[in-house]
TrEMBL record:
<dbReference type="GO" id="GO:0003824">
    <property type="term" value="F:catalytic activity"/>
</dbReference>
<dbReference type="InterPro" id="IPR050509">
    <property type="entry name" value="CoA-transferase_III"/>
</dbReference>
<dbReference type="InterPro" id="IPR003673">
    <property type="entry name" value="CoA-Trfase_fam_III"/>
</dbReference>
<dbReference type="InterPro" id="IPR044855">
    <property type="entry name" value="CoA-Trfase_III_dom3_sf"/>
</dbReference>
<protein>
    <submittedName>
        <fullName>Dehydratase</fullName>
    </submittedName>
</protein>
<dbReference type="InterPro" id="IPR023606">
    <property type="entry name" value="CoA-Trfase_III_dom_1_sf"/>
</dbReference>
<dbReference type="Pfam" id="PF02515">
    <property type="entry name" value="CoA_transf_3"/>
</dbReference>
């Protein structure tokens, strides 16, 4: 299948989540993405979780479909090789490093129309990671039970993910502009700015500015709506959400609480067709709905709610999810053999092009493509490559040595 970025070459010099996710997304869109690592690998090469072989499941997950080159990034000759891979190719680089020789100024001096994407911790260039950014934004102080006094971090690196996708979008936009005008781009995306923008877009930073109030910790309730978790008779937890008046009325009907809810509305002067009143009196409503869930099994609850428009889902573990048809029969997932990991169902591009989800391709072994990349894209001879390997400017077969070990 022809993809939008087929024929485009992108060089990625990165580690951790945001920049590798950007590169993998661009690869899934058809680009040839060359990940350049220092000899021995970057600091994320052994990041958990690990397979029994010791290979990083995390690293392979974020580098599917890329090519890998290992080059001494401290040596002048190694730096020149990476610069040539960028400027002699399509002039596009994605990085989260602060290497001066990889800066926009250095590369633009070699190729004025270079597209340079720099992922940062903070907009001023200072360092930060997802978890420190999140701590400074406010989310950990509104996450968790209402009675909890301290911060609760979430395990999803949300700002890394959003930042990586913003960066991929920026690359696509910059390519389009360069095709139209011939102008390159200097792009920077900071984790903290992504987090601040998201909190602002969702109203969390606007609310204290315009109303003098701010979001409070609500546990599993949904701010401004009626949504709550319930537990079945056999101990299965459910999340139930009613976004509309119809959702709420059908929840009332299925739980058999109609007469009580009507009396409650009259006593409180409330209109439960209004989402504000459903939210305001959420604790009382939850107390009325809870017995019905506690008296029924998970199977009975699922069967009853499935006949309504009520939004619901049972809480599941990752292990439960991966065994379900929404993974095993989902065209987003295809069976992939990853050296050092094994065979598993791996996600491809979530977006479908003309009804087809581009399938995943295995991640490379570290440095496995070094010689081929230098020969194909820089025209280096076998003798040139042998000399660079002898000088330890490049490492052509680290992946093979890892396998031997």
């Amino acid at each position: 299948m022809s993809m939008p970025l087929t024929g485009v070459r992108i060089v990625e010099v990165s580690s951790f989540v945001a920049a590798p996710l950007c590169g993998m997304t661009l690869s899934q869109l058809g680009a040839e993405v060359i990940r350049v690592d220092p000899i021995g690998g970057a600091s994320d090469i052994h990041r958990w979780p690990l397979a029994k072989s010791g290979r990083s499941i995390y690293w392979t997950g974020l580098n599917k479909g890329k090519r890998s080159a290992t080059i001494d990034l401290r040596s002048p000759e190694g730096q020149q090789l990476v610069q040539r891979l960028i400027v002699d190719g399509d002039g596009i680089v994605v990085t989260n490093t602060g290497l001066s020789w990889l800066s926009h100024e250095q590369l633009a001096g070699l190729r004025p129309d270079v597209i340079h994407v720099q992922l940062l911790g903070r907009g001023d260039g200072s360092t930060a990671v997802d978890y420190t950014v999140n701590a400074g934004i406010g989310y950990p102080l509104v996450t968790g039970p209402a009675t909890h006094a301290g911060p609760i971090n979430h395990v999803l690196p949300a700002w890394d993910v959003c930042c990586g996708l913003y960066a991929a979008l920026a690359v696509v936009a910059a390519i389009r502009r360069r095709d139209q005008t011939g102008k390159g781009a200097r792009i920077s995306v900071a984790l903290e700015d992504v987090a601040l923008a998201t909190a602002g877009n969702l109203g969390l930073l606007t609310e204290p500015q315009v109303s003098g109030t701010e979001r409070q910790r609500l546990g599993n309730a949904i701010y401004g709506q009626y949504g709550q978790d319930f537990t079945s008779r056999d101990g299965v937890a459910f999340m139930v959400v009613t976004l509309t008046g119809r959702h709420f009325r059908e929840l009332v009907q299925v739980t058999g609480t109609g007469a009580t809810i009507t009396a409650l509305a009259e006593a409180l002067g409330a209109d439960f067709n209004e989402e504000g009143d459903r939210y305001r009196y959420r604790d009382v409503l939850t107390g009325l709905f809870t017995p019905w869930f506690a008296e029924h099994t998970a199977e009975e609850i699922s069967a009853a709610l499935s006949t309504t428009t009520v939004l619901f889902e049972r809480y599941r573990t990752f292990g439960e999810v991966v065994a379900e048809q929404r993974v095993t029969s989902n065209p987003v997932f295809t069976r992939l053999h990853q050296e050092g990991i094994g065979e598993y169902l791996a996600p491809g591009m979530p977006a479908a092009f003309d009804g087809v989800h581009p399938a995943s391709r295995a991640a490379p072994a570290l440095g496995q493509d070094t010689a081929a990349i230098l020969a194909e894209h820089l025209g280096l001879s076998a003798a040139d490559i042998a000399r660079l390997a002898e000088a330890k400017t490049i490492d052509c077969a680290p992946g093979r040595r890892e396998a031997d070990q």
